[in-house]
Amino acid sequence: MSVSTPPGTPAPGPVVGFDLDLTLIDTVPGIAAVLEALARELEVDLPVAELTRRLGPPLDHMLAPHLPPEQVGPAGDRFRALYPDLAVAPTPALPGAHEALAAVRAHGGRTVVVTGKYAPNAQRHLDHLGLDVDVLEGWVWGVGKAEALRREGATVYVGDHVHDVEGARAAGVLSVSVLTGGCTRSELEDAGTDVVLDDLTDFPAWFDEHLLTTRVAALEERLRGLGSVLVAFSGGADSALVLAAAVRVLGADHVVAATGHSDSLPQAERGPAEAFADALGVRLVTPRTHEMDRPAYRANAGDRCFACKAELLDTLVPLAARLGLAAVTTGTNADDLVAGFRPGIRAAAERGAVTPLADAGLTKAQVREVSRRWGLPTWDKPAAACLSSRVAYGVEVTPHGLARVERAEAAVRATLAAASVPVRDLRVRDLGGDRASVEVDAVLLDGPLRSGAGARDAVLAGVREAGFAVADLDPRGFRSGSMNERLPDPERWR
I need a labelling partner for 218 at 20 to 30 A (CA). Which of 25, 45, 283, 465 fits? Predict the structure, then answer.
């Protein structure tokens, strides 16, 4: 799969098509009731059990063998007229239908129902059962479904019939079949389906794995296409996965890791980053960055992150050129592109940085899962933003101030460790005027760090000893990017 998403552009969410009858809903009882009523009106003997055994073909195809040609059209019209009163209420959703649609939406995707059923009646079923879909395309059958699937950008089509397989194949999308219709596994496989599931209860797990696999493949292809890379390596989970993937695809001789050293990089992050690169056999360079020399960075308005990332890329891009490397990559993931206030991403994009994780659509959760499978020690590493992210906007960033924040966080961690209180996420926020707010995992606030607890008093005392005259625990707990809540008019800085 070729990836050509411009840097800084969110990868599109997945689009999945679903058939309706016997894929999402069990229409056999309802259709049988309508056919029986139609047979009584027409005074003909329709083999209802046979006709409902393998639903899928258009109604006219079903009726044609049993009625004179001139009656087929009018009989179909009457069927559709009877349908709302007789077929909608008794038709249930099949097991897993709601969960399958939700699984697509959970990945930021869209769902498209492409069915041979008369569209108004199909919509009645969706509304009655609360099946939330984005697009409904009715009265299309077999290869005719391909046009709608292509138009909506679907990459997967789920159905129960061999003709659903034909539609998927004609559209060039992955065919997923469920055994809730009348077709057997062997019939579906002979028709060329790619995947067979017992029913839609198996779909969410399959879909999660499918996306993970295809996105990792896209990541590797993206890196392979670059040929050689300088990885902006912070030591966090995202850039660590980029580095590991680049080594897998390109070989260590075509990859260099670069960690910018400055006052904003915690000392505690430097050793683990060096060990990680060494374990991969990758050369690590540590150029000094000088963001403090940029007035916009020190002023710490809404464009601080822009100034920081600009300094990093202005350092790494010429370094990559001197090392003969084709591109500079960052660890920006797909979630970052839709997370709101991220001026640093724009600065990197303007300087030509490549974002292979985001280009491949890999989310933070998927980054962690791939890292876990690959045995990377960073798979569950807590987020570790730069020290400047702890300083309230409008408060000048200085080396002294950053060192004070780092001392305070170290004191809090040491205090909690001594009290046998595990903490995952921790930030000491410099609010200005020698005031600090401490953010920890929210679950601790009603436990060992509740009001009046000795551990709480010890934590705040450690922060004061680090140089803050006033300190308190944030009652809302840790929140990534909480300083953005204090920034007026963030749109100005995008």
Answer: 283
Write out the residue limits of the CATH 3.30.300.10 domain(s) in the chain.
388-493
Confidence at residue 416, expressed as pLDDT on a 0 to 100 scale: 94
pLDDT at position 172? 98
Cα separation of 159 and 20, whole Å? 8
Q: Which CATH number fits domain 227-384: 2.60.120.280, 1.20.1600.10, 3.40.50.620, 1.10.3470.10?
A: 3.40.50.620
**CATH number listed for the domain at residues 28-87:** 1.10.150
Q: What number of H helices and E strands is found in the chain?
A: 20, 13
Rounded to whole angstroms, what are the CA distances from 481 to 336, 383, 392?
Answer: 12, 11, 11
- The pLDDT of residue 120: 93
Residue ranges in the chain whose pLDDT is less than 70 = 1-11, 54, 56, 339-341, 483-494
Rg of the chain, C-alpha, whole Å: 29
3-state SS assignment for residue 126: helix
Q: 204-239 burial, b for 16+ CB within 10 Å, e for fewer?
A: bebbbebbbebbbebbbbbbeebebbbbbbbbbbbb
* Helix runs in 289-363, H state only: 295-299, 304-322, 334-337, 343-350, 356-359
CATH number 3.40.50.1000 given to 15-23+95-210: yes
Tell the burial category of 374 from Cβ atoms under 10 Å away from its Cβ (0-12, 13-18, 19+): middle
pLDDT confidence of residue 2: 30
Scanning the structure block, which residue is given the tokens 């962690």?
368
- Is beta strand 327-329 parallel, antiparallel or unpaired with respect to 229-232? parallel
CB-CB neighbours of 199 under 10 Å: 16
